Description:
The chain is α+β, with helices and mostly antiparallel strands. About 45% of the residues lie in helices and about 15% in strands. The protein has helices spanning about 10-30, 35, 80-100, 115-145, 160-185, 190-195, 245-260, 285-295; strands at about 45-50, 55-60, 65-70, 200-205, 215-220, 225-230, 270-280, 300-305, 315-325. Helix 7 runs parallel beside helix 8 (about 285-295). Mean pLDDT is about 85; it is low at about 190-200.
Amino acid sequence: MDANELDVNRTLREQLEFHWNHQLRARLEGLTDDEYFWSPVTDAWSVRPRGGSTAPVQLGAGDFTMDYASPQPDPAAFTTIAWRLGHVIVGVLAARNAAHFGAPAASYETWEYAGSAATALDQLQTQLDVWLAGVRSLGAAGLRTPVGAKEPFPEMPMADLVLHIHREVFHHLSEVCLLRDLHLHTKPGTSMEQLMTAKTTHIDPEELHRNPAFTQGVITPAGAGTLHVGGQLGTDSTGNLLDGIEAQTMQAMRNVLAVLATAGTGPEHVAKLNIYLADGVDAQVGYAASRSVWGNHRTAITVVSTAGHARPGALVEIDAVAIIPE
């Protein structure tokens, strides 16, 4: 190549590489789960534990799903950092890596969405690396090649697609950075560390046994709204009661999560859980089933054995008290 000839492929790669290495990566470093799932509005689309969403469509193949609707609402739904990262990882990068660079097939419907900020950032880095390696492999000639039928405009050259993908990455990750700033400054004078712990404070006195799953008490921050979740049975969306303690407990927990999500809060903001089990039920089976849905969120809990519930056949009922973050 002549020294004066422009290396378009390198220029396109460096457009993304420089921005990622010198601006975006540092701005995303240390992203917390609280920021990842946080929303300043009550009806945001997010990534949620499977069964915990009330969105018309829940996309994904793993333990977490991404909220969606078709047709999309007008105005468009507000989306959390978790949702925006999911969009960039899957729709912007992974699907294109699969379509053009031989990566494994990827789609919104089949993706295993990240249940933590750290996992999402790992997925993002992986897909960026695959994308940049793929762009490099195109050379100069490949950038002139039409993108083909896998894209909406098949005659468009690959160079145009590369520019489009880079614009999408800059656009959405800038939104993520702005949401981090908003999270930090929601309470003026509050440090990031304080914000991270502001949702609840656990009380575990030294003279009491420390349970690795649950806490002995919870203090909620002043000024936060309070949500009281009514008793939830193991019934599906049609009102049918599921069979057995394991299925009922998992469904009851999903129903609690759905109420929390609708109110703009989540399990990390729950101060108290009450679980009422029918006499004769194996509490250990119920506990394991509840944890499989609830995850590793420690909170104060009371488990009560009762003679029965108002609905015949109901083996478990769960209610909760949660704060609604400002």
